[in-house]
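Trying the structure run again after the queue cleared.
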Amino acid sequence: MRDLFFALHTLCSSTPEIFALAADRIFVNQIPRKIVKAQDVRKPKKILVIRQAGGGAQNDLMPIVDTTITAICYGENDHEAGRLRRAVAQRFTLLEREQHNDVLIHNINPTGGPLPNVEKDLVWPVLGQSYTVKADILEVT
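Done. Tokens:
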């Protein structure tokens, strides 16, 4: 079995439009503490965090995954967080059966619109958007 989130990380990191905005600040599940501490409290650089947002119990143990993820985009302000969110949304919704890290991603579809927010502990502008992902998580040959 392969890691779907590692594949999604690779997908985002290898997309020029996303990398141009977030560079190496693309993470799975949470932002490492050292990255949080290195940011300007009032104007953090753009950061993308990909997290699981639901799905069936032990969904990640199935040969074909149909799961829900959330792409959380942080930025210097609402507009900059939105630029990153739009780059991610475009890449995800235009994807058609691609292989990344031995995971075959069939499609990624939005499950709703973006949700603006402010990270209460960090006071950073953030936009989150959820997607459903269909992928084969067994090694592709």
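The two ends are 13 Å apart (CA to CA). Worth checking whether this holds up in the mutant runs.
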